[in-house]
């Protein structure tokens, strides 16, 4: 075998090293150009589950035809979309219409990627104020909600009956704890939720956090610690499975679907799957410490119009968005997505068509935006510390108090 | 290459087919040949520049600037020198991430290599079904990482995982494989070793086939069998193959991201965070991307890989042409 020269070998090793590491954070700056041709409008959405034949894509096409343009639609995974949108904006080829998860709106607005409703002339007057809140920062509005979802507690009626628990009696933390104890005594499992180390974990924890009276600006308050302790005690007592630490909301739902669990914290979007459960289920609001429904975070997407070099495109984009968010189309879209409509009128129609949605409409009415309270882009930094602290406490690596004290100092340092 | 890059003028040269053997004649060929040679190099160079040098430069640039989402889009991020690196080093996640990277890499390499070597020697004995079994061992390598990682994640689930069911059947207490800070790193190492064994097996097995049977026959006559044969003959003769297997394994293991991310997201509480997952976490894992620190961590990984590469060259040079 011929021996390679040292120089060649250094080069080869360097190359191998590059291959090793360039995979981790190499921000590719090459993005396909999107809809530059006049008459073609690009729409990006986070619904990759819908293909060309779906009602959603048909609606997009129809709205395009009505506005006299062709629509080029791309569906991205929702976690991908933020960075895709940022990169596209950096390259100057943002899509004409961008549908993004609501807590991302303030980030994109901060980046200057989105136009305000003053610039793009979108009408937001029909939208519920608490839903619109997630798309507002600094007194400006950056989009229209296309639908909302939130969290509530699904319960398994058979398990509760067998344990002698009346779901209507669960109105605060004490009654919930008592119910879980009875379920455990009856040999079933109590509650499942998702506490994974991503935004999903914070999303699921927030109803308990806010329901305790805690505020995101003070993660180490006694109320906040009480909320973490509630979850931690469930794990210690076996009322919740240890797997929640790694559960996504989907895997948590699969646990509930096994029929072994009394309660599951999950979202509006599971309604379709709930019908396939094979056992009778019901839904109650997530209780606050002292009783009454806890404010849950609003989920769901916003339709936004990213800034373009050619400002004359906004007029058509505005028509497209107006079409997508007209009452009738909202109704159709939100039914497909299993969301609650963002306008009181469409909500009333949804409840009329499906009375089961009433509890969800009420939950959405009580919900609040994560980036609201003027947190804006501070929210993601706080949220990251929050999910880390919850994971640390649940896995037993820190006490709830220590975890939240550290989270508060880290969050304060990150948001100062 | 010289045979194909000949210009028409060269065809008149007396012995073109032998030009490889006559360097002096090649020099006399003039500029055209050299230009042609460069022309052939150009696509490679362009490829290297576009797909290696530029991303690397961008990554370095990202790590030296104060990128917020706003300045990222506008492209006017101020130059802040090594502040991102300082921020990363002061971060409480830094020490655990480095430690986990070292433990993850070392444990994975030792186990993959050890088991891979044992299997290679085992299959080298050519018994019936050895080819079939060897093929079966390649399955982990052929599976997409998302499939194998998800499968491991299901098997190791605390509640419904088959591993805990098995432990229960043996009368052992269940282990919170993925959700206990004491076990999460071990779990991802186990999965990574399982995926890495075939790679080691294939390379070492082909290395074994390169060892002449006569050597073994001679050794057998001298009374070297079993362990002695392995330590005195097989292992030293496999050294060049082993070295390259370990280096490639090191490079692959340092950058392992998918397995850990799918199985634990680096958690709980950073207990299985490595530099690779941390870099992703910073850059893409939250709603608000931190490109600067994320790129800084990525660059630390590159430097680490380079350092190990240089160590490898050192070792090779000291061995003095044993290749």
UniProtKB/TrEMBL annotation, chain A:
<keyword id="KW-0732">Signal</keyword>
<dbReference type="InterPro" id="IPR006059">
    <property type="entry name" value="SBP"/>
</dbReference>
<keyword id="KW-0813">Transport</keyword>
<dbReference type="GO" id="GO:1901982">
    <property type="term" value="F:maltose binding"/>
</dbReference>
<dbReference type="GO" id="GO:0015768">
    <property type="term" value="P:maltose transport"/>
</dbReference>
<dbReference type="GO" id="GO:0055052">
    <property type="term" value="C:ATP-binding cassette (ABC) transporter complex, substrate-binding subunit-containing"/>
</dbReference>
<dbReference type="Pfam" id="PF13416">
    <property type="entry name" value="SBP_bac_8"/>
</dbReference>
<feature type="signal peptide">
    <location>
        <begin position="1"/>
        <end position="26"/>
    </location>
</feature>
<comment type="similarity">
    <text>Belongs to the bacterial solute-binding protein 1 family.</text>
</comment>
<protein>
    <submittedName>
        <fullName>Extracellular solute-binding protein</fullName>
    </submittedName>
</protein>
<dbReference type="GO" id="GO:0042956">
    <property type="term" value="P:maltodextrin transmembrane transport"/>
</dbReference>
From TrEMBL, chain B:
<feature type="transmembrane region" description="Helical">
    <location>
        <begin position="35"/>
        <end position="54"/>
    </location>
</feature>
<feature type="region of interest" description="Disordered">
    <location>
        <begin position="1"/>
        <end position="25"/>
    </location>
</feature>
<keyword id="KW-1133">Transmembrane helix</keyword>
<protein>
    <submittedName>
        <fullName>Sugar ABC transporter permease</fullName>
    </submittedName>
</protein>
<keyword id="KW-1003">Cell membrane</keyword>
<keyword id="KW-0812">Transmembrane</keyword>
<dbReference type="InterPro" id="IPR000515">
    <property type="entry name" value="MetI-like"/>
</dbReference>
<feature type="transmembrane region" description="Helical">
    <location>
        <begin position="135"/>
        <end position="155"/>
    </location>
</feature>
<keyword id="KW-0813">Transport</keyword>
<comment type="similarity">
    <text>Belongs to the binding-protein-dependent transport system permease family.</text>
</comment>
<dbReference type="InterPro" id="IPR035906">
    <property type="entry name" value="MetI-like_sf"/>
</dbReference>
<dbReference type="Pfam" id="PF00528">
    <property type="entry name" value="BPD_transp_1"/>
</dbReference>
<keyword id="KW-0472">Membrane</keyword>
<feature type="transmembrane region" description="Helical">
    <location>
        <begin position="183"/>
        <end position="205"/>
    </location>
</feature>
<feature type="transmembrane region" description="Helical">
    <location>
        <begin position="291"/>
        <end position="313"/>
    </location>
</feature>
<dbReference type="GO" id="GO:0005886">
    <property type="term" value="C:plasma membrane"/>
</dbReference>
<dbReference type="GO" id="GO:0055085">
    <property type="term" value="P:transmembrane transport"/>
</dbReference>
<feature type="transmembrane region" description="Helical">
    <location>
        <begin position="237"/>
        <end position="263"/>
    </location>
</feature>
<feature type="transmembrane region" description="Helical">
    <location>
        <begin position="102"/>
        <end position="123"/>
    </location>
</feature>
<feature type="domain" description="ABC transmembrane type-1">
    <location>
        <begin position="98"/>
        <end position="312"/>
    </location>
</feature>
């Amino acid at each position: 075998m011929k021996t390679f020269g040292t120089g060649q070998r250094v080069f080869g090793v360097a190359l191998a090293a590059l291959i090793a590491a360039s995979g981790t954070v190499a921000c590719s700056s090459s993005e396909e150009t999107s809809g530059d041709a006049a008459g073609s409008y690009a729409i990006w959405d986070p619904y990759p589950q819908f293909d060309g034949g779906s009602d959603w894509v048909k609606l997009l096409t129809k709205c395009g035809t009505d506005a006299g343009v062709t629509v080029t639609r791309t569906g991205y995974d929702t976690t991908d979309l933020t960075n895709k949108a940022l990169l596209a904006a950096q390259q100057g080829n943002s899509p004409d219409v961008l549908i993004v998860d609501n807590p991302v709106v303030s980030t994109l607005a901060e980046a200057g990627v989105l136009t305000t409703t003053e610039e793009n002339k979108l009408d937001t007057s029909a939208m519920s104020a608490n839903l619109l809140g997630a798309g507002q920062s600094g007194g400006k509005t950056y989009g229209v909600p296309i639908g909302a979802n939130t969290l509530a507690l699904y319960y398994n009626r058979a398990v509760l009956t067998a344990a002698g628990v009346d779901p209507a009696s669960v109105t605060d933390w004490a009654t919930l704890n008592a119910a879980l104890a009875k379920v455990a005594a009856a040999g079933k499992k109590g509650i499942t939720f998702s506490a994974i180390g991503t935004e999903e974990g914070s999303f699921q924890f927030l109803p308990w956090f806010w329901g305790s009276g805690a505020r995101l600006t003070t993660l180490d308050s006694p109320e906040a610690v009480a909320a973490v302790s509630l979850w931690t005690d469930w794990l210690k007592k076996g009322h919740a499975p240890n797997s929640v630490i790694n559960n996504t909301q989907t895997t948590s739902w699969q646990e509930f679907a096994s029929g072994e669990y009394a309660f599951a914290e999950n979202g509006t979007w599971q309604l379709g799957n709930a019908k396939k459960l094979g056992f009778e289920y019901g839904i109650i609001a997530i209780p606050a410490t002292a009783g009454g429904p806890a404010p849950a975070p609003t989920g769901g997407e916003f339709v936004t119009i990213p800034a373009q070099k050619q400002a004359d495109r906004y007029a058509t984009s505005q028509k497209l968005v107006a079409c997508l968010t007209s009452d009738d189309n909202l109704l159709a879209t939100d039914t497909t997505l299993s969301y609650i409509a963002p306008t009181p009128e469409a909500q009333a129609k949804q409840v009329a068509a499906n009375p089961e949605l009433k509890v969800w409409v009420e939950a959405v009415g009580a919900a609040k935006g994560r980036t609201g309270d003027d947190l804006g882009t501070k929210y993601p930094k706080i949220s990251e510390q929050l999910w880390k602290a919850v994971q640390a406490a649940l896995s037993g690596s820190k006490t709830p108090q220590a975890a939240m004290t550290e989270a508060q100092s880290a969050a304060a340092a990150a948001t100062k | 290459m010289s045979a194909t890059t000949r210009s028409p003028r060269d065809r008149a040269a007396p012995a073109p087919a032998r030009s490889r053997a006559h360097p002096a004649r090649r020099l006399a060929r003039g500029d055209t040949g050299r230009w042609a040679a460069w022309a052939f190099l150009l696509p490679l160079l362009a490829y290297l520049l576009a797909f290696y040098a530029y991303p690397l430069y961008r990554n370095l640039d990202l790590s030296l600037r104060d990128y917020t989402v706003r300045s990222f889009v506008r492209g006017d991020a101020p130059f802040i020198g090594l502040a991102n690196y300082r921020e990363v080093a002061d971060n409480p996640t830094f020490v655990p991430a480095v430690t986990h990277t070292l433990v993850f890499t070392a444990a994975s390499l030792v186990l993959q290599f050890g088991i891979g070597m044992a299997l290679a020697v085992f299959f080298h004995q050519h018994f019936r079904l050895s080819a079939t079994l060897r093929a079966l061992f390649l399955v982990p390598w052929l599976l997409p990482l998302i499939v194998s990682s998800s499968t491991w994640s299901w098997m190791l689930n605390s509640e419904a995982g088959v591993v805990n069911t098995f432990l229960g059947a043996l009368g052992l207490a269940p282990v919170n494989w993925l959700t206990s800070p004491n076990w999460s790193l071990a779990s991802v190492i186990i999965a990574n070793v399982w995926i890495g064994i075939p790679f080691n097996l294939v390379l070492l097995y082909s290395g074994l086939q390169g060892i002449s049977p006569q050597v073994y026959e001679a050794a057998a006559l001298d009374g070297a069998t079993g362990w002695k044969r392995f330590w005195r003959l097989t292992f030293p003769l496999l050294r060049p193959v082993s070295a390259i297997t370990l280096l490639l394994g090191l490079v692959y293991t340092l950058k392992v991201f998918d397995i850990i991310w799918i199985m634990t997201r680096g958690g709980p509480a950073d207990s299985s965070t490595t530099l690779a997952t941390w870099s992703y976490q910073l850059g893409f894992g939250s709603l608000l991307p931190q490109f600067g620190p994320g790129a800084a961590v990525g660059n630390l990984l590159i430097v680490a890989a380079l350092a190990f590469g240089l160590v490898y060259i050192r070792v090779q040079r000291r061995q003095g042409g044993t290749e």
